Amino acid sequence: MQTKNNLHTTLKKINEVIIDQKQELIQTIKVEKSIKYPNLIQSNSQELSNWRERLVNVYAEAILLKKEESIVLLNNWGRETADLLIVIQFPLDLAIEEIKFYRDVIGDIIKDQAKADTLSLDEFYELLSSFDHVVDHAIHLISVFYMKKYSTNIQSAKNAVDELSVPIVNVSEKIGVLPLIGDLDTQRAQILMDVALTKSAECAYEYLIIDLSGVPVIDTMVANQIFKVLDALQLLGVETKLSGIRPEIAQTMISLGLDFKETKSFSSLHLALKFIGFEQKNLV
């Protein structure tokens, strides 16, 4: 059985072999994936080469580290890798395949060096188990960070679409119209609040018309949110009008007991504009 110092020497040798064979290892997986996924690989060849080199370096470095230190190393690598893979649109399942690929090839390097240094069975098992843990943890981390990043991007895209679905149109210097189309859920109603207040303050509106003619139905939570928007706009000094309220929407608002007496409502946007003195000739 080797001493602790001798075992460290073996680990150092394994580290050096991995570094020496790095380009060969990378080329092996590169050729395999290029054959299976030619279009995907070619379009991201440089980014993938950098990622593969970084992965092999991480494996080589982790060989020399204690378990706690290797976890810190892998955490940092996982975050960086997830960001890169999302940017180049590299599928998670293919990334996991590549991470797993090195389990066997580096496992063979560990086995050969263990034989050369006449390690005991227990020592060999310890080294191999330690590396297996590194690979398993790498797969776990990349899966977690990839999905978090992916979900964040999806949510950001959804928020951007939601914001675009709550546009404010300047019809004159002091008048804005907020036409709403489609279903209003609680999240979109909150965006309505944010956009209405921000845009009204930026443009110094005197009037804002919220047109609901394109909204088929509003639930009680959303109706209450609209009421809060009207209150907030009033605090900003913006006179708000509602237009295009459908009968079923009116019933929902009444059933809630919401008091819209201070907010004038109209059956159409045209009538609301006419009421506040906006003439058709202003459009010319």
UniProtKB/TrEMBL annotation:
Keywords: Phosphoprotein. InterPro entries: Bact_StressResp_Reg (IPR051932), STAS_dom (IPR002645), STAS_dom_sf (IPR036513). It comes from the Bacteria. Residues 165-276 form the STAS domain. PANTHER family: RSBT ANTAGONIST PROTEIN RSBS-RELATED, RSBT CO-ANTAGONIST PROTEIN RSBRC. This is STAS domain-containing protein. It comes from Metabacillus idriensis.
